[in-house]
């Protein structure tokens, strides 16, 4: 992977350099050096980005399946992980990016939707939010 690809993929996920560094358990200067092409980018960075992109795409698909309803998303990691325990460790930022992707898809399809704050829900063991009758 080249430095510019890393930067583009990180930005597309809505992550800043510090957040990506934290997810990789590295110092921010390491990510800065990667993006400045001062260091070779290890394959585990590509694997982490693939994981995050898969999470984003999965979430977007789940949200698109709920249309034309509102698209709930989370202001912080704790609320996101309480509702989506299988995605613990994936930052809530990824969910917000996925919600924006789902909103864009809805608009392209002529479906009215909006992004709203998710209501707190009890934890479950599923992939997504708790179902309510």
Q: What's the alpha carbon Rg, rounded to whole Å? A: 16 Å
Number of domains: 1
Indicate the low-confidence ranges by residue numbers: none
Q: Tally the helices: what do you get?
A: 6
Shape: globular
Mean pLDDT comes to: 91
Largest β-sheet summary: 2 strands, parallel
Describe the structure.
- With 133 residues, the protein is mainly α.
- It has a single domain (3-117), classed as Putative cytoplasmic protein (Orthogonal Bundle).
- The model has no long low-confidence stretch (mean pLDDT 91).
- It has helices at residues 3-12, 17-24, 28-35, 43-64, 77-83, 92-108, and strands at 71-73, 115-117.
- It contains six helices and two strands; from the N terminus they run H-H-H-H-E-H-H-E.
- A two-stranded parallel ribbon has the order 1-2.
- The protein is 54% helix and 5% strand.
- The longest helix is centred in the middle third of the chain and has 22 residues, at 43-64.
Describe the structure concisely:
This protein has 133 residues and is mainly alpha-helical. 54% of the residues lie in helices and 5% in strands.
Features:
mainly alpha, Putative cytoplasmic protein, 133 residues
Task: Show the helix and strand layout.
Blueprint: H1 3-12, H2 17-24, H3 28-35, H4 43-64, E1 71-73, H5 77-83, H6 92-108, E2 115-117
Parallel strand pairs: 1-2
Helix pairs in contact: 2-3, 4-6
């Amino acid at each position: 992977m080249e430095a510019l690809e890393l930067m583009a993929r990180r930005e597309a996920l809505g992550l800043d350099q510090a957040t990506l560094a934290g997810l990789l358990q590295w110092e921010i200067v390491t990510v800065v050096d990667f993006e400045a092409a001062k260091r070779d980018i290890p394959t585990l960075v590509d694997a982490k980005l693939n994981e995050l992109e898969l999470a984003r795409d999965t979430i977007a698909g789940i949200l698109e399946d709920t249309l034309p309803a509102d698209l709930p998303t989370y202001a912080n990691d704790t609320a996101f992980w309480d509702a989506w325990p299988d995605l613990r460790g994936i930052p809530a930022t990824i969910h917000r990016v996925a919600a924006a992707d789902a909103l864009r898809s809805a608009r392209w399809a002529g479906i009215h939707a909006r992004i709203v704050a998710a209501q707190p829900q009890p934890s479950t063991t599923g992939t997504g939010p708790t179902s309510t009758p």
